[in-house]
Design a protein that fits this description.
Number of helices: 7
Number of domains: 2
Radius of gyration: 21 Å
Oligomer: single chain
Number of strands: 23
Largest sheet: 16 strands, antiparallel
Shape: globular
Helix content: 10-25%
Length: 349
């Protein structure tokens, strides 16, 4: 049980609150925090009972709002591994549903679904896997238009597309219907006006552990070609972000100077999971992504600076734009900034 408490957002034990919350809550477990752009939302965690199932429920300190619920088949299942839950619900302050995950079956015959929502209740994303293979994978803007769409067929990736709020393409790439994520076309990241910004030729990334990249100015002229991944023209992208994305930062929490801080890194890591083909082939190692985060904390552009195999790298790239950040701050003002985010994959023995 201590392992569960430690992982669930650094929960610290404090028994003095026992008995302050009546009802189905049968045992005080500790307290923890959810990082948000408006600050850290504190919650108190309780064991609860409901029929034959075992549930962990977190309640917000202010207003006693329910913050998180995890349901397990039994207390033994929860003790064995904290992610063995069959159902998970995370709520916004105030009680509106933010994330709902459910699981049935045992790998590889497992069915999983994840749905996320904006605070007004509109759909934010949907991810469905059947027999551990992705069948539906989309993310939406608040107005309901497509923000990201990954198309799959029998567990094989066919295409990766993302869009700007104006409907123009943000990222596009097609893949051969093979299980090892072999690219069929270059992966292209675009300027908001629709012209190419970065073209990544990933056809041989599995062999060379690198990606040949071509960069373009807003005038369409080629700027630089670099296959070492060590010479990305940061100044070009920084200039782009400064001029193109003057977005509202009213919800950003004031803080001291520092690099961008990911708010939902664990959620994105869960969405990536352990790629099925990598698991089947025994591939493990790390992927490090370099990400341009704009003034509002939105991930805009990315490229891998280190990876061991495309069977790990491509699945990470599919969800990297789902990361949400506290923006970088300099002299008290949010600024665009590059940040490196690692993703580690290690098979359990």
């Amino acid at each position: 049980m201590k392992n569960i408490i430690a992982i669930l957002f650094f929960i610290s034990l404090s028994s003095f609150l026992l008995g302050q919350n009546p009802g189905k809550k049968v045992g005080y477990m500790g307290s923890g925090f959810f990082p948000t752009k408006k600050g850290n939302a504190k919650y108190i965690l309780f064991e609860t009972t409901e029929g034959k199932t075992y549930k962990l429920s977190g309640y917000g300190v202010e207003g006693n709002d329910l913050a998180i619920e995890r349901t397990y088949k039994s207390k033994k299942a929860a003790n064995r591994y904290w992610r063995n839950y069959t159902d998970e619900k995370i709520y916004y302050p105030g009680g509106k549903l933010k994330t709902h995950r459910s699981r049935k079956g045992i790998y590889p015959k497992m069915t999983e679904s994840k749905r996320t929502y904006y605070e007004d209740g509109t759909a934010k994303s949907i991810l469905i896997k059947k027999n551990s293979k992705t069948v539906e994978d989309q993310a939406f803007f608040p107005d309901g238009s497509i923000r990201r769409e990954n198309k799959w067929q029998n567990g094989k990736l066919l295409s990766f597309r993302a869009f700007f709020p104006n409907g123009k393409p943000h990222v596009s790439g097609e893949f051969s219907p093979m299980k090892d994520f072999k690219a069929k076309t270059p992966l292209i990241q675009y300027y908001p006006n629709g012209s190419p910004f970065i073209k990544s030729d990933m056809a041989d990334m599995g062999k060379r552990k690198s990606v040949t990249q071509t960069y373009f100015g807003r005038d369409g002229n080629e700027v630089k070609v670099d296959s070492s991944l060590n010479g990305f023209p940061d100044s070009i992208a920084s200039d782009l972000i400064n001029q193109e994305f003057e977005m509202s930062i009213s919800n950003a929490m004031p803080r001291e100077d520092g690099e961008p801080y990911p708010l939902n890194i664990e959620e994105v890591r869960q969405d990536i999971g352990y790629p099925l083909v990598a698991r089947e082939d025994g591939v493990q190692g790390s992927v490090v992504m370099r990400i341009m985060v704009d003034k509002s904390g939105v991930a805009r552009y990315f490229y891998p600076i280190n990876f061991v195999d495309r069977r790990l790298a491509v699945p990470v790239m599919l969800y990297i734009l789902d990361l949400e950040f506290m923006p970088a701050v300099h002299n008290g003002e949010p600024i665009p900034f590059w940040v490196n985010i690692p993703f580690n994959f290690k098979m359990l023995k």
